[in-house]
Amino acid sequence: MIRILLVDDHALVRAGLRRILETQQDMEVAGEAGTGAEALDLIRAGELDIVLLDLSLPDFSGIDLMKSILAADPSRKILVLSMHPEESYARRVMRSGAVGYLNKEAAPELLITAIRKVAAGGRFVSPGLAELLAIDLAEDDTESPHERLSDREFEVFERIVRGESVSQIAATLDLSPKTISTHRSRILQKMDLRNNADLIRYAIDQGLLS
Questions:
Q1: What is the torsion angle, in degrees rounded to the nearest 10, for the CA atoms of residue 73, residue 76, residue 80 and residue 86?
Q2: What whole-number distance in Å separates Cα of residue 81 and Cα of residue 4?
Q3: Which alpha helices (H) appear in the chain, and where do they start and end?
Q4: How far is Cα of residue 79 from the mean position of the Cα atoms in its chain?
Q5: pLDDT, tens digit, for every residue of 150-191?
Q6: Cα Rg, the chain, nearest whole Å
Q7: What is the pLDDT of residues 107-134, one digit of tens each?
Q8: CA separation for the pair 111, 43 (Å, rounded)
Q9: How far apart are alpha carbons 104 and 111 in whole angstroms?
Q10: How far apart are CA 206 and CA 159, in angstroms?
């Protein structure tokens, strides 16, 4: 039996995923979490095979949550299920330790296939992402501006384009406003942009802003 933890801040999404997974005789939804903190508590408390993880949570970035999960148990299998397009996020999350990435618009059958492949010890990428990764190997200069950012810079970038202020980001990440301002300056420099409005336009153009 494949024991799965659903991590998504939308109860309706979790309910839909549960209905899909419970039709499979070899799968069991072992728990649900709407925040990163809830997910970590459930992971520490129970035996799970796969964490089905949404990247957009109210208290954790998806990247930071993956790091916390894998720090506690490096063998934990994380399959990311996100609304964000593969070309914008998949490479980053795979580099950060996820064993698979699937867009929420994918057919339920593809989700089932992905879970079984990951549970068996494999890695899952959709045909579209496989093609994208193949192109990356063939070309030297395919890195998008946002992919130049460190994981922390990318998290600050995400929060800026969602409209959070420096003080809000600092409070959420438990950092000083000065540190956040420094991250913002480096983000603008690395991406060759001038201000927050440019960052927002870039995020919209790249499909990074839901």
A1: 90
A2: 13
A3: 11-21, 36-45, 62-72, 86-95, 108-119, 127-138, 151-161, 166-173, 177-191, 196-205
A4: 9
A5: 888 998 999 999 999 999 999 988 899 999 999 999 999 989
A6: 17
A7: 999 999 999 999 999 999 877 677 666 6
A8: 21
A9: 9
A10: 16
